[in-house]
Design a protein that fits this description.
It is built from 1 helix and 74 strands. It is mainly β and 880 residues long. It is elongated, with a radius of gyration of 45 Å.
């Protein structure tokens, strides 16, 4: 009897295959045996399923089928066939099958999870076995594994040092070869090549990555279908060429055209002015070509040209020259740094060289032997930057890793910090690194401890006793010993953490030398502070400064405003600077630090369009039109009350007036004489509109009076009678100046009841305390003036030729004619200078040339002339 049956296989092989399996797996008839004729098995052979390629972890597409036949080749049923998997793994089901009427037995084979060759052995009693073989291949890509190339660092626009390599694997971890892998930049720019790569036999795909044009983090995505792996790299900015370099007792700076200037002590030729004469002010380096960067060491300085040629001057192991001297070593450098008596440089290929003195191992060549010629730094590292200082050196590799040497260690030694830095700065005892996102880290020389200084830094530099840097927004900060005021906070107190430099300047870079610091503004202005001897500050004389002080020649002015023994100037970069008497805070520097004899920046960081000075008060109009005043016991700019926007502000002795757009005039303050002009004698704490329906073109406040010119050129004054020119009594509303004149301007004295006006005929008419009249009196001499300014007992006028003439009292030299003789009529100021504007203080006068250079003369007890000393000047002296 035969029983027909089937066994489910899970995978259909077609109708004919189903029939084969049905017969094979059903077995023979019950009670059948192999005793009969033709029933003796003679051979076991494979029918189907051999040499298949099977994906890991899946069932083979075809079943494994064998056939048992007798000696005549006829099928033998009822034979038990065993299927056995070899060591390659996997499984069969079922593993024992009885042949069917067709002599066949079949099973299913599931592949293992490991790629490789496989074998399934079949056997039946008394018969030779047979073996099924095939290959197990990887499944679909499940993961993209990183092999190398992630978290690298390169300069913007440059390729990474190492290729990006990824490995493809299936869900069981098997390598997936021959698969197309794509690449794409998804952040930061740049490019990856090729766009598509085939994974090799090891499952590896390789790409070359070039950074984008901007600093920061770049990201690439490597993809196979929906599977993705992202890799990141840091694009470091190109090193900003150093245009400011501070040595031990000298300073060097580059102007916009690359011309080098140095100042300070010059015993060894480090100033480069052609001899060994020290320079009090910036002096051109003799024979220097245009440089793109500059560096200063202890006794020498060096500059790099645009074509990477190196010039040096001063002394290391030998005298380099008294002016710029080409250093022809057969090498060109992209970056150089000067140390004590040594120099280091980095070539375009990233090779590091050092030469000079080597007593502390600062050449990094594994020895302490001096080398007069460039010697390779040990370690075969590729360098981005090297920074020398004192007896040690630190550097950054092209990958942004920090190494230091010197100080007794003769080869580059990695710093404990694993942070990637974009720049590095060294001090005498350690170094600081700055990351591409503005985070700063500092460490002591070869110490494992690394301290975090916070974020928000745009640059860092180191000196012998500490560090300086610029925070985002241009705020300068320094820290360190501060024995000579090099921190610039107005003290000599040691600062262990970054401390803001006083003065309110906005800096693009701040550097530190041995005992002094200097900062450069975005518009090129240069300020220095500290100093064991301030010849290194470039301010033209000896004397330490605890706060930023303008380097001589570093400031040009748009306007000047002289007050009571102090002066303020509006610089060409729209910053305000004041100098002189400061007992009431009228310099606006944040303190009452007194007797400042050179321009000192007004605090607050404002951009100014107008300045005016009174007796103890200064006011200015910022770029947004808001008014600010300081002095009268307020040490920093304080916003004018009322919230008005002004085109001009003018402080008098005890009151202030401001002109707004459209010609309305507002005044506030003391009103005892009616000088506020609001028809009252009441003091006002907020701006009050001047009475009348006038539209004003200009106004000038004085001691106890105010004068103005309206748009019809009529002159008016109000307040104390003597200074009004109206011939009347105290008046609390605008009254017409006598004489029927038309005026282009009127100027009031802040110290006495006096005023002068320039008529449309360019004549000067004055009245009040200086003339003893209460009506205008013509100033004799037939001069044509364009402007006039009044002090306590003197006046000066600017004629149409640009010459300044002064008259009145001259006890302090305020007439500028080289004498202390009083002059009843205008006399020319000495010096044959021509000016564009002038301003008078109490006993001093200042004027401005067409080029923006400021000159002052007269009384100088409190430093109000800004010439770096308290000496009285009887002729014009340039403001430093």
């Amino acid at each position: 009897m035969r029983v027909r049956g089937t066994t489910p296989l899970g995978v259909s092989a077609g109708r004919w295959l189903g029939l084969v399996l049905g017969l094979s797996l059903a077995g023979g008839c019950v009670g059948d045996d192999l005793a009969g004729p033709g029933r003796v098995p003679a051979s076991l052979t494979k029918v189907m399923g051999d040499s298949q390629q099977v994906t890991v972890g899946t069932v083979a597409a075809l079943p494994l089928v064998v056939e048992v036949t007798n000696a005549q080749g006829s099928p033998v049923s009822g034979v038990l066939v065993n299927f056995t998997v070899d060591s390659a793994g996997g499984s069969v089901a079922p593993n024992a099958v009885t042949t069917g009427p067709d002599g066949r037995a079949a099973t299913r084979w599931q592949a293992p999870t490991v790629v490789g060759s496989y074998a399934v052995r079949t056997s039946a009693a008394g018969l030779d076995s047979t073996v099924f073989s095939g290959d197990v291949v990887a499944g679909g890509v499940a993961t993209i594994e990183l092999v190398s190339g992630d978290s690298q660092v390169a300069l913007v626009g440059m390729g990474l040092d190492s290729m990006l390599v990824v490995r493809l694997k299936d869900a069981f971890g098997n390598l997936a070869s021959g698969r197309p892998v794509t690449s794409a930049v998804i952040a930061g720019g740049g490019s990856v090549q090729p766009d598509t790569a085939l994974a090799d036999q090891a499952g590896l795909a390789t790409f070359r990555w070039t950074m984008g044009p901007s600093k920061g983090f770049d990201t690439v995505a490597i993809r196979y279908n929906s599977v993705e792996r992202r890799l990141g790299a840091i694009a470091l900015p190109l090193l900003v060429p150093d245009s400011l370099a501070l040595g031990t007792t000298h300073t060097c700076v580059l102007d916009a055209a690359g011309q080098a200037y140095c100042f300070g002590l010059n015993y060894y030729g480090e100033v480069g002015n052609g001899d060994t004469t020290s320079a009090f002010v910036p002096t051109p380096v003799n024979g220097a070509p245009a440089f793109r960067s500059i560096t200063a060491g202890y006794y020498h300085s060096c500059g790099l040209t645009a074509s990477s040629e190196l010039y040096c001057w001063g002394t290391t192991l030998t005298r380099l020259g008294l002016g710029a001297t080409r250093q022809d070593f057969g090498l060109t450098f992209e970056q150089v740094t000067a140390g004590v008596l040594s120099t280091c440089g980095v070539t375009a290929a990233g090779a590091g060289y050092c030469w000079g003195s080597n007593w502390m191992g600062q050449l990094g060549d594994g020895s302490t032997t001096d080398h007069p010629l460039p010697t390779p730094v040990s370690g075969n590292l590729r360098w981005r930057q090297i920074a020398a200082q004192s007896g040690h050196v630190c550097g950054l590799t092209t990958g942004g890793r920090a190494y230091c040497w010197g100080g007794g260690v003769t080869v580059p030694t990695p710093v404990a910090a694993t942070t990637v830095f974009s720049t590095i700065a060294t001090s005498a005892n350690g170094a600081c690194g700055l990351t591409v996102v503005g985070a700063a880290w500092c460490w002591d020389l070869f110490s494992p401890a690394v301290g975090f200084l916070g974020t928000g830094w745009s640059s860092l530099s180191g000196g012998n006793s500490g560090y300086c840097g610029v925070r985002a927004g241009g705020q300068g900060a320094c820290w360190g010993l501060n024995a000579y005021g090099e921190v610039g906070d107005g003290t000599r107190v040691t600062r262990t953490s970054p401390t803001t430099v006083v003065g309110g300047q906005t800096f693009s870079t701040v550097g530190q030398g041995s005992a002094h610091s200097c900062g450069r503004t975005p518009t090129g202005g240069l300020y220095c502070w500290g100093g064991t001897i301030s010849i290194v500050l470039g301010i033209g004389e000896v004397g330490r400064r605890l706060a930023p002080t303008a380097v001589v020649g570093g400031l040009q002015f748009l306007a000047l405003a002289a007050g009571g023994s102090f002066t303020c100037g509006l610089a060409t970069d729209s910053t305000a600077h004041c100098w002189g008497f400061n007992e009431y805070g009228q310099l606006g520097i944040g303190t009452t630090l007194n007797f400042l004899d050179q321009p000192t920046p007004v605090s607050g960081g404002h951009t100014w369009i107008e300045l005016a000075a009174g007796s103890i008060t200064t006011c200015g109009v910022a770029a947004d039109g808001l008014g600010w005043c300081w002095g009268d016991n307020t040490v920093s700019p304080t916003s004018a009350p009322g919230g008005l926007t002004f085109v001009a502000l003018d402080p008098g002795a005890n009151h202030i007036c401001g002109l707004i757009a459209g010609g309305a005039l507002y005044c506030w303050g003391n009103n005892f004489y009616g000088q506020l002009g609001d028809s009252s004698f009441s003091d006002r704490g907020t701006p009050t509109l001047v009475a009348g329906s006038h539209t004003w073109g200009s106004a000038s406040t004085g001691w106890a009076q105010t004068c103005g010119v309206d748009t019809s050129a009529a002159g008016y004054c109000w307040g104390s009678q003597l200074g009004l020119g109206t011939g009347g009594v105290d008046f609390n509303a605008p009254g017409s100046v006598s004489g029927g004149h038309t005026f282009i301007s009127i100027a009031s004295s802040t110290w006495v009841d006096a005023a002068c006006g320039i008529t449309s005929q360019l004549e000067a008419w004055c009245w009040g305390a200086m003339t003893g009249t209460n009506v205008p009196v013509l100033i004799p001499g037939g001069h044509q003036f364009t402007a006039v300014a009044l002090g306590v007992a003197h006046a000066c006028g600017l004629n149409v030729q640009g010459q300044v003439l002064c008259w009145g009292e001259n006890y302090f030299g305020q007439l500028g004619d080289g004498t202390i003789l009083n002059r009843p009529i205008p006399a020319p100021v000495s010096g044959n200078l021509t000016f564009t504007s002038l301003s008078a203080g109490d006993y001093q006068t200042c004027a401005l040339t067409a080029s923006g250079s400021a000159y002052c003369w007269g009384g100088n007890e409190f430093g109000g002339l800004g010439i770096g000393a308290a000496a009285q000047m009887r002729t014009p002296a340039q403001v430093w």
